[in-house]
Task: structure prediction
Amino acid sequence: MIRFRFVAVAVAVAGCGSDHITLNCANVLIPAFEVTALDSVTSQLLSGTVTVIATRHGNAPDTTRGFNPVFVDGDPGKYDLVVRSVGYADWSRQNVNVEWDSGNCHPVMVRLAAKLQQSP
Result:
């Protein structure tokens, strides 16, 4: 299952001669992560299902499965990530920071290339 969160994009509107700005947000899909799983030797995209386990510090793990690349929903904060694919050892990264673009009402997407090593 690939999960996305509907988030908003901000548009500032001000009338002529007005000092008042109104912030309007429209629904758009912006994931927190784009994870591309690659073979560590060949740098080729992995075929088949890729699993990404994203754990935001202080929260329960959230698992997303899909094909390359995998898009993962999330809020701002620090995450620990584990990427899995059949026939490969897990790849992990700790303390990956997702920032929030408050002017556009969405997370700033983090793009990662996970180079997985084949299992013996």
Notes: The longest strand covers residues 6-13. The domain at 6-116 is CATH 2.60.40.1120 (Immunoglobulin-like). Residues 36 and 68 are 6 Å apart (CA to CA).
